[in-house]
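User: Design a sequence. Structure:
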């Protein structure tokens, strides 16, 4: 078979045929690498031909964070958008009601959240079925993905959607594997790892065969986690996005308490009824929690802090410098020091440099040079 899809199917079939054990580990690793390369070709190839962007999918980012609604048709994504944001998006009891990306915004804890309603996706979306590719393309730009599921439909839908997103390089609720690849001129492949880490999922031979497949002949591969073959491939491929995800289980108005109890074991999930607006408080709180943002209140000199409009910064970039950059690019350069009140300091206020790590609801005043 000559087509990319054909080659992918062939490798997937071979992987399914191959028993998983120590003897086949290296070979399986190699197949995984080949598969990842073909999938990348498939995605990149489609970008060039015919503009995968598509009408209406280039929605401008607004607000502090972007959250995307992904799910099968008719699970209630549009109903949820309309109820949460007040932005009307047509909802109906036939599939593929929504044909484009419709943005709405709402405010929670002083944070402006952009919510994107998207067309439903189906199995095979990542390979070009329906508008799947555009939808998943937008999902890649989101800080958080809400996978919307219908409580009255089987949970297999969850796995299908996860697979579609993963096939497009999105990793859900997963940290970037701590693997460092340093190329060198000679010396072959050297695996480096601290004695504290036991590698149970990946042998040195598999590392070598994966590197060989990617034509990496000389490099130090440094592992700081118990990585799998997929983790190594992800780091070599490099274009993965690591996105938090919440499973929104909708239409719970249609199931019994007993059924709901069973579903309660799904991790990262919130049950809601978009129709009846049940449990929206928990949903909004969980969205806030998973976005992992912090609120910083500004305090102009001689005035009380502005508690109405916090500056919103991702926790990962929540230093005094990160805060400055959110306000104005020049501010960090002009800063002499920052005065900080709140839980991140021992004394209130405390003089802090630009590397000081801020906490949620700290108050900051920037003192400029001269
Ligand atoms: N019982 C019940 N029905 C709901 C709920 N939310 C949405 N619906 C119904 O489910 C149907 C589909 O809702 P939509 O909001 O259009 O679903 P969607 O996910 O946007 O569908 P597509 O745009 O086709 O992908 C409509 O008839 C809604 O009234 C809910 O919480 N409970
Ligand atoms: Mg819709």
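Assistant: Done.
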């Amino acid at each position: 078979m000559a087509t990319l899809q054909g080659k992918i199917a062939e490798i997937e079939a071979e992987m399914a045929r191959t028993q998983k054990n120590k003897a086949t580990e290296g070979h399986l690793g190699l197949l995984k690498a080949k598969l990842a390369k073909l999938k990348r070709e498939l995605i990149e190839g489609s970008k060039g031909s015919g503009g995968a962007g598509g009408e209406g999918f280039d929605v401008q980012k607004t607000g502090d964070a972007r959250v995307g609604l992904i799910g099968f048709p008719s699970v209630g994504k549009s109903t949820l958008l309309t109820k949460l944001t007040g932005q009307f998006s047509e909802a109906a009891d036939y599939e593929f009601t929504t044909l484009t990306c419709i943005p709405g915004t709402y405010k929670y804890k002083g944070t402006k959240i952009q919510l994107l309603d998207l067309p439903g996706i189906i199995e095979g979306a990542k390979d070009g079925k329906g508008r799947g590719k555009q939808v998943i393309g937008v999902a890649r730009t989101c800080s958080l993905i809400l996978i919307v599921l219908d409580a009255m439909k089987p949970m297999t839908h969850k796995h299908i959607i996860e697979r579609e997103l993963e096939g497009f390089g999105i990793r859900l609720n997963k940290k970037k594997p701590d693997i460092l690849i340093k190329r060198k001129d000679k010396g072959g492949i050297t695996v480096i790892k601290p004695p504290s880490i036991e590698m149970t999922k990946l042998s040195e031979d598999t590392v070598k065969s994966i590197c060989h497949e990617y034509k990496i002949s000389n490099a130090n591969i440094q592992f700081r986690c118990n990585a799998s073959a997929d983790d190594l491939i992800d780091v070599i491929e490099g274009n993965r996005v690591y996105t938090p995800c919440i499973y929104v289980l909708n239409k719970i108005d249609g199931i019994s308490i007993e059924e709901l109890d069973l579903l309660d074991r799904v991790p990262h999930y919130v049950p809601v009824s978009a129709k009846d607006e049940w449990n929206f408080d928990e949903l909004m709180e969980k969205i806030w929690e998973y976005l992992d943002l912090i609120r910083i209140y500004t305090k102009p000199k001689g005035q009380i802090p502005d508690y109405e409009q916090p500056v919103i910064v991702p926790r990962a970039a929540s230093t005094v410098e990160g805060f400055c950059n959110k306000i104005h690019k020049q501010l960090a350069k002009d800063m002499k020091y920052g005065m900080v009140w709140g839980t991140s300091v021992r004394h209130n206020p405390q003089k802090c440099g630009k590397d000081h790590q801020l906490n949620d609801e700290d108050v900051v005043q920037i003192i400029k040079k001269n």
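Residues 4-51+177-237 form one domain. Residues 1 and 7 are 6 Å apart (CA to CA).
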